[in-house]
Amino acid sequence: MSRSKWLHPFAIFTAACTFVLLIVGGLVHGTGSSLACPDWPLCHGQFLPKMEHGVFYEHSHRLVAGAVAILTAVLGVWLWVHKDHRHLRPFALAAPIMVLAQAVLGGLTVIYKLPKPITLSHLVLSMSFFSVLVIIAVRTRPSALAFESEQASRARPEFDMRVSVGLVALAILGQIFLGGMVRHSMAGLACITIPLCDGAFWPPDSESAYGERLHMLHRYGAVIVGLLVIAHGVLVYRRSAKGTLVRALAAVAPVLVLVQITLGILSVTSLLHLHTVTTHLAVGALVLATQVTIWAMMPGSRWRLASKQPAELSSHPSRVAA
User: What is the DSSP string of 63-119?
Assistant: First the structure.
């Protein structure tokens, strides 16, 4: 394997490590370890403190974040100097900037004792950064070097579908933001009955109304976003060539949505069981990744990512090439 062919596996590895970082970050909050290290970037004045209790989770998160930052810097430089991937230079620049901003937000979170605007910004930026790495991983595939024809680029049906999938990805990111609002507002158990909140579709005015309404807003958002993902999964599946990755992801996405909704219900019924809530976050990231991957692989992106172009594509220009 030539040196340039290692770029794609390295991009996948970096994205996978970032996914692990998201999970570790979820464990930090779930175990109440966000301030186990009261200083930053060191922990109790040490680079390697005694890894026990909350320090284990918090400092492990910092160490994994540091590793991801190094991987991202290497990936960014590699992309920038690679002559075959000059079209990815905006991503090569964006990824290191995002990981640096993420580190700054992480530090501010500790220094200012978990202010909600910063913690929520930290969450949204982490998911956005993960999405950028997924796009890089997809578009560094060796077969991605073939540009689409002008006809495929300008094909109205595919372009419209790609825009629609992109909007669904943004809706998922918004739903993740709502989930972060619920979690950081301690509203995860504001409504412990399902599907309604103490028999009400919308909680009435009370001292606990804010948490209850926020919780229910997240539930209604889950239904809306879930239906969007399922509907788009069906549409993309029907318009994709057989045997393509896009079609497989279109089939997987609705299944992940059902798993995610189940985990949301179990999070409430289990009284926020640590592993259930953390898995809920992880599956949410995977649902986002499926839509981002589909978006990056659909015609209209300037990159055709099929290792082989389906024969029927030429006779059916409205079909999606993966």
Answer: HHHHHHHHHHHHHHHHHHH-GGGGGGHHHHHHHHHHHHHHHHHHHHHHHTT--HHHH
